[in-house]
Amino acid sequence: MKKLNIDVVDDCAVVSSIIKFELQKRDHFNVRTFASGEDYLKSKQDSDFIVVDHHMSAMGPEFMDGLEMLEKMKNRANAPVIYLSGQSDIRTVVKAMKIGASDYLSKDKAGFVHTLGYKVDQLIAEELQYPETSSGSIVSRVNILAATSILAGLIIIFCV
Question: Strand 81-85 relative to strand 103-106: parallel, antiparallel, unpaired?
Fold first, then answer.
């Protein structure tokens, strides 16, 4: 099976490292991390799946946030995007989805990283088992739920 290129764009090195660690436990993911939307867009990477954080201010106020990044990616990426945010503002979620995010995941939910990997694995298995019902996108139907609190606790400690 071809490894999927999953790109994580988050200014918090702890979050990026945790996501990378969790997803690379699986043999079929190649995870690359980027500290800003600008870094990702300059890289011109060929992504199968992108995880984008909303609030990327650690790099400085002059750097784009996740919504701006989605806007700039509109004409470039066919890869599904999971939008991450620690905000509970539904307007942010709706705006991200309207701009082009495939799904949304709240960082406030415990265990979101573990669940992200599990759900992507589940979707890939479904695509392989029933290719005739495939939407053509590996992760376009990902539905993220929360599971454990350990990773969320680390993120709150290091990234808030």
Answer: parallel
Q: What is the pLDDT along the chain (160 residues), one digit of tens a residue?
A: 678 888 999 998 988 998 898 888 877 789 999 999 889 989 877 888 889 999 887 666 677 899 999 998 876 657 778 888 877 788 988 999 899 888 888 877 667 777 777 666 765 666 566 555 444 444 333 333 232 333 444 444 455 4
Look-up: residue for tokens 């376009």?
A: 140
Domain range enclosing 46 = 4-159
Determine contact, residues 12/159, Cβ cutoff 8 Å: yes
Pair of tokens at residue 155? 């993120």
Write the CATH number for 109. 3.40.50.2300
Domains contained in the chain, number: 1
What's the pTM?
A: 0.73
Q: Locate the DSSP E strands across the chain.
A: 4-9, 29-34, 49-53, 81-85, 103-106
3-state secondary structure at position 6? strand
